[in-house]
Design brief:
Structural class: mainly alpha
Order of helices and strands: HHHHH
Number of helices: 5
CATH topology: Four Helix Bundle (Hemerythrin (Met), subunit A)
CATH class: Mainly Alpha
Shape: elongated
Helix content: 55-70%
Distance between the termini: 57 Å
Number of strands: 0
Radius of gyration: 25 Å
Strand content: under 5%
């Protein structure tokens, strides 16, 4: 099952925004001691604000992924290794982001910042790997279908996540063969 296109492209967009703003901030931070230090300082400050905004959107999307994507695939046993890596990566980024604001010492803050940067740089590759492995497992499960066929399938996200029971049509009443083979009392 692929994610609904809005959620899928929302995730791609927020990962791209986080990556771009994080990388631009990293470059600006390295160049703030240069001759154009004030410009780079301003660019870095603006990138941090945009990065924080994108991170808030990412938190909402990650929260939506738990019932709509993660739970169903975990129960189905699909893509567990890369899925667990994605959960761990997102958890590490959330914890280190919190630590950047609330770390008590400069040494701890430097360590937390280094971990956040390293994991953040790895995130796009992990997302791409997770998506590629998911698509490969879907192709293996349905070898006769083309990839485009999956775009036309109605998502059953509520059912997969266990939020809604699947709709079943009740048996016809009376049952189709009721009374057959019995003698009616007259």
């Amino acid at each position: 099952m692929r994610l609904e296109s809005g959620l899928r492209f929302g995730n791609y967009a927020v990962v791209a925004a986080l990556t771009a703003t994080g990388m631009i901030w990293l470059i600006a931070d390295m160049l703030k001691a240069s001759e154009d230090g004030e410009l780079w300082q301003a660019i870095g400050a603006n990138m941090l604000m945009l990065h924080g905004l994108a991170a808030m959107v990412a938190l909402v999307l990650v929260g939506a992924m738990i019932p709509l994507h993660l739970r169903g695939f975990w129960r189905a046993g699909k893509n567990r290794i890369s899925g667990a890596a994605m959960v761990g990566t997102n958890a590490a980024l959330m914890i280190t982001a919190w630590g950047l604001y609330y770390a008590g010492s400069d040494e701890l803050r430097t360590f937390v910042a280094d971990v956040h940067i390293a994991v953040g740089i790895a995130l796009p590759a992990l997302v791409a790997t997770h998506v590629a492995l998911g698509r490969r497992s879907t192709r293996r499960a349905y070898p006769g279908r083309a990839g485009a066929d999956f775009d036309r399938v109605e998502p059953l996200t509520g059912v997969v996540a266990g939020l809604v029971s699947p709709t079943r049509t009740p048996p016809p009443y009376p049952p189709p063969h009721a009374g057959e083979g019995t003698v009616a009392a007259e």
